[in-house]
């Protein structure tokens, strides 16, 4: 009889978690009811018997309550034999679930369910620097990295990893692209390593496929998501524009341009570094058009009095040549300003963002 009972309990512990947890609760409540029924004077109330059963199963046994009858003591022995092991299995199952959760998270097998996050596609040192930059800029935003490495390259509280092919719709869904705030596609130079001759077409071709997959999914969702892509060869930019990539990082062109300018204007690369680095005092920020700014001159002088310099409207850097022109409603104004003072400027100008 005892062996059959043990086998029955073992069988119950092996069933699915959705049955196991209710069974544990049911077991505790029934055991408490039996204990209270056997010795109502000892336990005084049903709640007290629940307390005694839990302390007994947890093997802490404070000793403030204990059965005094032979029947009660026999039931206690039964509780030890069946319940302690059952509860141990229960906690083991919980710990195993936590380990499985961490394993799946590190292995990129879990679906990201948050929103307003950034998706970075492709892992490299540039991706690592981009993560640091985003975390410094926004203390709350989450980041989802998509790549094909077996485990997450780094583990952070707000960093999530999805393992898979970024050209695959299921992978993009796993990264919750539909709820993302923006995407950066980094060029995968590793695709050149398997070929004897390095060809930027291989790298840009993969980036273009990913951008196309994102555009296709955008059309299905009827939603626009800001996409920035790193492009190795600037001759490929028209192809990326056709798939609605919003912004480009023409890597080779930028490096070559900065290198050449440094020969004619010594120290120009330091200026580039200062503007692009979050560690620098001055940086580039976007600011929203204020209601009292009618022309670019109004904005330029107002910002200048506050210590900021208006430098561009979107990609237009010729602000100084059209100061008396009206600022369009959809203007995207950029300023150079001290990072520490930018917060104070936002407080004075509540419509900054």
From TrEMBL:
Segments passing through the bilayer: 20-38, 45-65, 77-101
One cellular component (GO) term of this entry: plasma membrane
Membrane topology designation: Multi-pass membrane protein
GO molecular function, a single term: voltage-gated potassium channel activity
SUPFAM superfamilies on file: NAD(P)-binding Rossmann-fold domains, Voltage-gated potassium channels
Listed PROSITE patterns: RCK_N
Protein name, entry field: Potassium channel family protein
UniProt organism field: Bacillus salipaludis
């Amino acid at each position: 009889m005892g062996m059959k009972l043990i086998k029955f309990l073992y069988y119950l512990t092996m069933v699915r978690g959705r049955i196991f947890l209710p069974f544990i609760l049911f077991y505790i409540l029934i055991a408490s009811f039996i204990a209270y029924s056997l010795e109502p004077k000892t336990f005084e109330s049903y709640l007290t018997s629940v307390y005694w059963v839990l302390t007994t199963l947890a093997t802490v046994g404070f000793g403030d309550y204990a059965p005094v009858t032979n029947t009660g003591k026999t039931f206690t022995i039964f509780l030890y034999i069946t319940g302690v092991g059952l509860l141990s299995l229960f906690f083991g199952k919980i710990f195993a679930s936590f380990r499985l959760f961490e394993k799946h998270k590190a292995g990129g097998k879990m679906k990201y369910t948050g929103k307003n996050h950034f998706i970075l596609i492709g892992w490299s040192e540039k991706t690592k620097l981009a993560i640091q930059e985003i975390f410094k800029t926004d203390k709350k935003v989450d980041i989802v990295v998509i790549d094909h490495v077996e485990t997450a390259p780094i583990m952070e509280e707000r960093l999530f990893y999805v393992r898979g092919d970024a050209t695959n719709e299921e992978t993009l869904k796993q990264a919750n692209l539909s709820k993302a705030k923006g995407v950066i596609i980094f060029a995968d130079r590793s695709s050149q390593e398997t070929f004897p001759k390095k060809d930027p077409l291989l790298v840009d071709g993969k980036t273009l496929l990913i951008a196309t997959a994102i555009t296709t999914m955008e059309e299905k969702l009827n939603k626009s998501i800001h996409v920035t892509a790193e492009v190795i060869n600037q001759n490929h930019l028209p192809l990326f524009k056709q798939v609605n990539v919003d912004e480009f990082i023409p890597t080779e062109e930028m490096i070559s341009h900065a290198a050449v300018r440094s020969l004619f204007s010594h120290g120009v690369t330091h200026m580039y570094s200062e503007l692009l680095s979050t560690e620098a005092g001055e940086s580039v920020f976007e600011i929203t058009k204020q209601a009292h700014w009618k022309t670019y001159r109004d904005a330029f002088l107002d910002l200048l009095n506050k210590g900021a310099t208006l430098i561009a409207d979107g990609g237009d850097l010729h602000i100084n040549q059209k100061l008396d022109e009206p600022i369009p409603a959809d203007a995207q104004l950029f300023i150079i300003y001290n990072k520490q003072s930018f917060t104070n400027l936002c407080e004075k100008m509540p419509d900054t963002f």
